[in-house]
## 1
Amino acid sequence: MRHIAIVGSGPAGYYTAEAAVKKWGENARIDVFDRLPVPFGLIRTGVAPDHQSIKAVARRYEKTAVGDTVRFAGNVTVGKDISIAELRELYDAVVLATGAPSDRPLNIEGADAKNVVGSAAFVGWYNGHPEFAALDPDLSGRHAVVIGMGNVALDVARILSKTEAEFAGSDIVAHALAALQASKIETVTILGRRGPHQIMMTPKELGELLHLERASPRVDPADLPPVEDDAILEPGLRKSVTLLREFAAIPESIHGEKPLSLNFDFFANPNAIVSEGGKVTAIEVERTTVEAGRAVGTGEVYRLPADLVVTCIGYQTNTIEGVPFEERAGRFANDDGRILPGLYCVGWAKRGPSGTIGTNRPDGYAVIDLVDQDFASSSRKRGREGFDELAEARGLDVVSFRDWQKIEEAEIAAAREGAPREKFVDVESMIAARSG
Ligand code: NAP
């Protein structure tokens, strides 16, 4: 028997569990821990609520989760309720699949002003993550600035632009839907420190901006390099840049039909946040040029009005006591997934925050191959039996997968018309819902 603990129940965690079942079948017991009482991590609280087709992958994780081989143990915070040392004592292998749930900080003057928020917090707010549900961003101003030119920046800009009707069929939480309906935002500026050829946005996501009911994307044609230069780009990026060219060709008359403007501001490096009475009012930006792929300041500085700033500049893994951490990369220090004997990492906690959900699948299979190579011939570990004893002694309130199914039933029952669910946004309500 092999006893495996996986910490984190998002895509990286469940692909790893799936790989363990494929490798060892009934000869393994796999416990998947999560600090929340609900599973699926990024699928539930990261993926945009209007991207339901991406969220459908959770059905695959459910297939892995039901049954006795794999067990969900929610509402358990590793590093607080149980230490890494204790988990390593109990299990043959501990795989950290904790993702990258915190914002990389924007280290510029004034960044601590009110209504300057990171994407982890903002996305967590509209997705009902208990840690961020109370964020309550002020949407009463006219100008929002989104920093970064990746897919998260696109998610945030799109969510800020959509009408109530466009959220039909989504699982955006009620508090966010109400706040967005009352929003007074008229411009959303997406700020990139480099140029159109350096964007990280993928074509499918970028193309959605052409179909928004009340918003229209604007690109200044002067920012675009000569079209022949696109030939050197890899095909995905070339498609994205072609879309930017489409945005640049939209006539003013069409923009005029839409009340909200989505402005792409390239070659614009944030310098400082300007605030009044502690709340952001503008962002100071330095014009850049791109030299050998790097943004170089030109000395030309200007201000953009900003009543809300959302930084979408990447994420980092949360540290856990006893686990070596690579500060610069914002992830666990690891050698291709190995951290210490019996301790591994996978997904964003291993690689840093890049790639699609599907990238985690080969990652999960690879880490299980490592565990298999490292595994001593027979286990002397106590696995879940030992964990259950410890949980009882500590009075931990462990939430099972069956419990989660009851919570989910209650969320589905509470859904507004056409929506898949209305999420509970605090841990207490989630736990209360498990008793039906
Ligand atoms: P990302 O793709 O790495 O983009 C981060 C952006 O922030 C880049 O444009 C980067 O510019 C900019 N940036 C970083 N530091 C900055 C600073 N100090 N000042 C100004 N700009 C700064 O990260 P992400 O958008 O967080 O996405 C994370 C991953 O999730 C990506 O792989 C993404 O594709 C994926 N994702 C996918 C979807 C989807 O498929 N629908 C949705 C959301 C996220 P530089 O390039 O100049 O560094």
Note: The radius of gyration is 23 Å.
## 2
Amino acid sequence: MVKKAKTSFFCQHCGYMSPKWLGKCPSCEGWNCFAEELVTQEASGSRAEINFGGKPLPIEEIPTEEGKRLTTGLAEIDRVLGGGVVGGSAVLIGGEPGIGKSTLMLQMMHNLAQNGTKVLYVSGEESASQIKMRGQRVGAASKNLLVLVEVSLEKILEQIKNISPAIVVIDSIQTLYSSDLMSAPGSVGQVREASSRLILFAKKFGIPVFLVGHVTKDGSIAGPKVLEHMVDTVLYFEGDSGHAYRIVRGIKNRFGPANEIGVFEMQEKGLKEVPNPSSFFLAERPQNVSGSVVVPSLEGTRPILVEIQALVSATNLGMPRRTAIGVDHNRVSLLVAVLDKICGLHLGASDIFINVAGGIKLSEPAVDLGVVAAMASSFLDKPIDARTVILGEVGLTGEIRAVSQMETRVKEAARLGFEYCIAPKTSSAQAIKVAKMKVITVSSLQQMLENLF
Ligand code: TYD
Ligand code: MG
């Protein structure tokens, strides 16, 4: 009897499976994202080829050696990874097209190859000569850097077995194709199958694998969300083509701190590390103009000083505009309401634009006070002293709340020559003693405004 081919419908965003077509995904609530894919009962060999042969062990008898970490030669990436690449780990690196994923991978592989590590760069997107051309641009040339142009998962696995490289890059995971599945490359089924087999392979042979992943328009890594769960580390490439800087942010990391960032600048000859991002982001700061304020934000374990700009101008519209770039839009609305109600600054008839200079994104509430100060400064048209940094979280009643790791932030500000810091009134802030830095503690918004203007 001929077995009927079994198909299911998969959400192309999150991997949700449904026996029939749906207009809206019940899991991720995306519209029109279901595609039919053929399901095979058991992808042949994929499970059998992996045999860990393990038996349960008491936890105290498990050897603790973490294994040596591979140093990538890019200090920024090493830090984001938590001190280098862990053997057998799977790292997903996502980002928009053209942001520099392939460039970064090639530079990293080149550094490793130069130190005598055999590396394999698999590309399914570009021809070998295109890769060679990029290689010449970034100066990548080494006998140990092997390039394979291939999209068949089985052939890639075979080559990895033959060559046994110390590290593998797959650029990109969406181009891979396994003949076990009938669906098209880039579909959820293929992406999931290819990644799970590569990851198992990596774990079994202790070879770290870097998977490059494309990002959809809305910013999530294309293909199933499960990809993020399967890998050990998820790195995200941020930045836009309008700016030269690029940020690699660790979203998830099983071997180190998450949310750590590495800062790069895209130049003629590839990506260049920016070891001192604060001065980079403050380079073009205008002096003595209203609406500009510097906040010491904490990205991972590293403090970075950034400039927040606000423009408050009278509106002709019935509904004033509120635009926020780099900070959360809802958070800004909340702060506007607090300023209006608690401090009597009536912004109701003003358009408000907030921008974080350099295009970096700030997500922590510790920058609240900076946003408020920038808005107030622009509204009152009074500049804030250029030697001042401001940090603190703002509550709904106008109270100012504590932020974490005050001392680290204040020290970074002092290092860059700032002399005053407006901070929440907490014991930790009052205890801070940093040379040439005066910490002014405030407990309410009014108090801060009195201090500033
Ligand atoms: P690429 O690494 O191909 O991006 P992705 O793999 O994420 O799609 O980066 C391509 C962009 O980077 C392209 O717009 C040109 C620019 N670029 C430079 O500015 N300098 C360089 O040395 C290289 C290699 C690329
Ligand atoms: Mg690419």
Note: The chain has a mean pLDDT of 88.
## 3
Amino acid sequence: MSAQVHFVGAGPGAADLITLRGRHLLRNADIVIFAGSLVDRKLVECHASTALIYDSAGMTLGEVIEVIMDAVASGKSVVRLHTGDPSIYGAIQEQMEALDELGVEYAVVPGVTSAFAAAAALKQELTLPEVSQTVIFTRMEGRTPVPEAEQLHKIAALGATLVIYLSVSMIEDVVEQLLRGAYTPETAAAIVSKASWEDEQILRGCLADIVHKVHEAGIDRQALIIVGDVLAARREGLKAKSMLYDGSFAHGFRGIVT
Ligand code: SAH
């Protein structure tokens, strides 16, 4: 029997960036509980026109679980809609554990995380050969603690491409921590606010001027900080080509092109 309860990633914001599976589930849902602080109500209403809709912004974990349990008891289908992909800062684990304890089946449907919507907005590959082959999704410590080994200044030692969630309101601290690692004031940085929304905003700069640009634009939430040399590769004319499409590089689907 397929699950009655689905955790669904809504994608970064635009209504057509949800998966087909997610849209199908929303269309057929009796109950939708969505994270109103980050998911646009219009997206929910557009895809789930017949469902009873709850905004979880003002609800406790216990209340969310109660709504799910009541729905399950009366044979209804529930979609718990999270922004982006539910596995990234989605707080779904605690909900899944509560359902495990109550013996309720559920399934998870992935979504486009905002990191990828931001890369698309920037028209930027995050992994360029010889520049960076590693992307780190992370955050500054806020009210939610971050393990000691993952403090931003320690992660910064690697010099990889960074996508920093939940931290734009602490941009000064972010820059201070990054400069303690492998990054310099000249390292390229970008801010993407509300990626894929109508009022999306992009700021490009470097660690030396990004704080000023963020303050000037008045961005203090729903934005990602992206940092790393990949952002400057195009500007600096670094011809970082992948091996995959190089004629002298044979692989399983193609011999050497002469
Ligand atoms: N699960 C979500 C992240 C939730 S945490 C995801 O996969 O994207 C909330 C943080 O995500 C925000 O503080 C912001 O850093 C980022 N975020 C969410 N949506 C965004 C968007 N459309 N544009 C830029 N950043 C976004």
Note: The pocket of S-adenosyl-L-homocysteine is lined by residues 12-13, 38, 82-85, 88-90, 113-114, 117-118, 165-166, 192-197, 222-224 (CB under 6 Å).
## 4
Amino acid sequence: MKIQAINGFKDILPDSINRWRYIEQRARDIFERFGLQEIRVPILEKTELFVRSIGESTDVVEKEMYTFPDKGITMRPEATASIMRAFIEHGMHVQQPVQRLYTIGPMFRHERPQKGRLRQFHQLDAEIIGATEPLIDAELIAMGQMLLDELGLRTSLEINSLGCSVCRPPFKTQLVAFLEQHLSRLCNDCRRRTHTNPLRVLDCKQEACRAVVQSAPSLLDMLCNECDNHFQHVGQALQHIGLDFRINRFMVRGLDYYTRTTFEFLTADLGAQAAVGAGGRYDGLIEQLGGPPLSGIGFAMGLERLALLMEQQGAQNHAEHSMDVFLVALGDKTLNPSSRLAHALRKNGIKTAIDYAGRSLKAQLKQANRVNARYSLILGDDEWLRQEGILRNMRTQEQQPFTLTGTPEEWCSRLIDIIGPAPR
Ligand code: HAM
């Protein structure tokens, strides 16, 4: 019996790795342009961290966490909580009042696997901690949009405000009263949510629930002055930067730590998994985790969804896997010097492939094409006797003689003179 990977856990094969690396490189580049620094946090954390930050009655904490109950630890379902834990633990606010951080890595949620939804998935996560200005919200959202643009992706942006501890509780009371009048029309989940997490009813995907919430009270009409002002300013700032967006009063997000601005980057091209990235403000979170009263805002994008979308939308601007030189060593006499040449080339940064199995010229040239080699150098026994190999440009098919006098290290410099140095 073959052993297969666990359902929802996927290998990322060499075929798609260039796309992944391209996305990661663009993300690092853009995040660093905005002054974010990388942080790496552990995959395992105390379960309590996620319960206290994400919220006890969220789907993530209730049903989706990979927890080792006897050890009290959980595999991170997201990165924000861990980054805040690290921020507090290392007193990072003391060194710098505003911290801009990002991390890239795997997250774990026990969801039902589907296209674009996995149990181990990867996020690009960006956070700006210690600033409340609406211009920061706009800057962070614009950074996410810039990444999507540079990846060549077409998405839409929706924003909302979830208010704060002053304006949300009275809204919740009104919402529950409204939902209680319509319980019989709600799905089973939403009937339960009405009393555990009523805001979630607002973004239920069931037709019946969507019909009910159309006439539900809106938090946007009940925001306190500060939150209303903040939201207006975020919208204006986004307009100033030139970002298109839509206000979606039904967006609530699945994690409890959000306050004020929330946003999602959406696509209709990935079926049910519409969110390519999402985030928002979490002004009470750091204090709730035992830290100073600092606010923050961030987002995360799903790498699997970005990669899928690039494929789907034909955004193929990443480099294909390629080699600089394929050494076609054809006889016993040439194997050892060819291997020394390969070592010298690699030492000089040249991507070099070589086949020691003694396959035919035709088979090796086919392999050279398969690995996308720019050049192949043919070194057979005849060439060895003549001290002259054949250098073939694999793109143009042109061939030229290549002198084999001196040591393989000397051949190496001659070859680099012809094909050019390794691109850095
Ligand atoms: P989230 O909305 O739970 O937010 O996830 C953010 C993104 O991660 C989603 O938009 C999606 O692209 C991707 N994602 C989530 N779950 C899966 C899955 N099962 N399979 C594939 N991709 C998935 C957060 O995680 C917040 N921590 C974002 C944040 C950062 N808010 C503030 N700072």
Note: The chain has two domains: 14-167+223-312, 325-419.
